[in-house]
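Contributing: when you submit paired examples, paste them exactly as shown. First protein:
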Amino acid sequence: MMRISSWLSRYTESLEGKRVAITGSTGGIGRELTAYAASLGASLVLLDRNAARSEGHRQQLLSHFPDADIRCVPLDLEDLSAAERALGMLTDIDVFIHNAGAYRIERHLCDSGYDNVFQINFAAPYYMIRRLLPTLRERGGTVVVVGSIAHTYSKIDPSDVDFRLRTASSKVYGNAKRYLMFALYELFRDETDVMLAVTHPGITLTNITSHFPKPIFALIKHPMKWVFMPPKKAALSVLRGVFEATVYHEWIGPRWFRVWGYPKKSRLHTCKDDECQTIARLADEVYETCKKTVDLKK
């Protein structure tokens, strides 16, 4: 069986001279990604809504990588003004990894008028990626996003774009991930200067899987560690995306049943052309709404 160290030697290379920004940098997968990137020599931008937790993680990383260049930038994806402020501090990045996510949380409408689960998982990161494209083009940069198997749980509904009328957490989350993945496939379809990698880590024990009631989570927490991959291994699918692009409707994830094993590329057949075109059109509308929201707050 291949060891992680052997996998890293085969599929990664030095990131010295590269600045990597990671959303959700203090979560389970985020923490592993930042450690991998630091070990490969990258300069890091930790994007997280909790400043104290972000600084604590920065100090922990520096204890292992004392020469690393690491800075913290606050980012609350429910607040587009915060996203805009963060963009002002990302003018020198080479890689943008959108890893942050929210599943079953208390729901409300954000400043944009969109449901907060939709804004966290799609609207805000999509807005940021589009705004970052000029910088990334100049630097020959890379965008890596974390998709999800949940994107298969339902099709989009143009009459309820953000699924604010739905109550099933899996479908609300899955709808946002469906937009994220397929809107970016369309956006990058003719892109030549910036690399896109759509990835998914499978199922692992992170903050996003701790939404169950505490008694239930206490029961499943330890079995999950045995049944599913740990974050350290699950993060490899996302890490591979830093070095290898995905083509249209291709993603990188665990090789066995999309749950276990080291990452591999596979084709997606989960969204037909007409729905993809609708997603692209609606994504443009979401972007314009986000832009107007930011402009009104200036």
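Second protein:
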Amino acid sequence: MIRISSTDRVFILTGAGISAESGVPTFRGAGGLWRNHRVEEVASPHAWQRDPRLVWEFYSMRRRVAAAAKPNSGHEALARLEQSLQDRLFLCTQNVDDLHERAGSVRVVHMHGELFKSRCDRCDRAPFDDSATYEPARSDGCTPRPVPRCRCGGQIRPHVCWFGEIPYDLDKIAAGLNDCTVFIAIGTSGLVEPAASFVARVRGRARTIYVGPDEPANTFAFTDCYWGKAGELLPNAFRFD
């Protein structure tokens, strides 16, 4: 289906669709609501300033859901592709879960951050691994866990790119886009910038391929589209010349 030569450099962008196949909610369907809150109300700098407990409740729920999810055949196919191509594959994801890594991918660029990391909202302390949940309310009557604090006194927040913030590793991503000869988007909506514009940056000099069950907003920019779930299509998708 997708032919890759010995000289091709492949840039893959994955979106919420591939994680949704593992049971991770996208929060863009059904009005983008969580407990009657619009997602922007719990995933923005303003939300953090207004109610950090509510923000942590949302991300604690996301951590529980993501931890229970398992990589699907699409994640595993991309891990095998990385083993074949090594540094000729650039895997960039809009997802904050760790399903790519758990499937075996090693070099993953998380442009929107990582759900199982946290950082201080005040000092320059590096992001650190953190899978804890910080619940503001407990049904069993136990005292809720407070919003965690850094040693500098700042509050610990999820290491996630919120609405209104700049995505991570854009310089590295730009270099990957400049080098690629094949661009493949998987399960993306084509609506979220700057990722939605990646295909336009390489169109005309790289083959542009879309894989997913639903038509993205930027379908016109792809030379080839394969409709279906990543977990069903990707395991047998790649052919090497």
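If you have annotations for the second protein, write them as plain sentences, like these:
The CA atoms of residues 189 and 215 lie 8 Å apart.
The first strand starts at residue 2 and ends at 4.
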